[in-house]
Write a structure and sequence with these properties.
By secondary structure, the chain is an all-alpha fold. Helix content is about 80%, strand content about 0%. Helix 1 runs parallel beside helix 6 and helix 3 packs antiparallel against helix 7. The longest helix has about 35 residues.
Length: about 170
């Protein structure tokens, strides 16, 4: 959500003066990279496990967000946003598999329905946080503040996440 918030400032002539077409190209690069990343991370998640894949994606996303907040040109911002798409796509496929490891088939629909609300609710909260950060600290803060929050989430995930119930002494569903 950071770029969506930062676009408001980046379009202003006194900031970068980016055109709608340029910003659309940046968004397109992100979406293509995100779609391609889904295949890459899904396969990798099967091979090395959810925990490793999602941690790599979150850590990469944090690093790229900081770089985006530090970017000096639209071209660099575009390259970084495409890379952000690759890292952000690391979550869905591996975490969906992970849910299947922890919950029996009879309740997976309910669990996944609840889990999926995090994308809508999380996206809404992320937009508000990025917007407030930009409002109080400038467009670059729309990247830095959410990166800091995701870094904290990454640490919590590293401590609490397991690939299978058996990894933490629980029975398989």
């Amino acid at each position: 959500k950071s770029l969506s918030v930062a676009k408001i400032e980046l379009k202003k002539p006194e900031v970068w003066g980016l055109s709608t077409e340029t910003l659309a190209a940046v968004d397109g690069g992100y979406l293509i990279a995100y779609a391609a990343g889904q295949f890459f991370w899904g396969v990798l998640g099967d091979r090395v496990g959810t925990r490793r894949v999602v941690l790599a994606g979150m850590a990469g996303s944090v690093a790229v967000a900081v770089a985006m907040g530090s970017a000096a040109t639209a071209g660099w911002l575009g390259v970084l946003f495409a890379l952000q798409g690759v890292f952000q796509s690391s979550g869905w496929a591996p975490l969906t598999k992970n849910m299947g490891e922890f919950f029996p088939r009879r309740v997976r629909g309910r669990v996944m329905g609840l889990w999926c609300t995090n994308f809508a609710l999380g996206g809404m909260i992320a937009g508000v946080v990025a917007g407030l950060a930009a409002e109080h600290g400038g467009w670059r803060m729309a990247f830095f503040v959410p990166a800091g929050i995701l870094a904290a989430i990454c640490v919590a995930f590293a401590i609490l996440q397991a690939d299978r119930p058996e990894d933490v002494g629980l029975p398989s569903p």
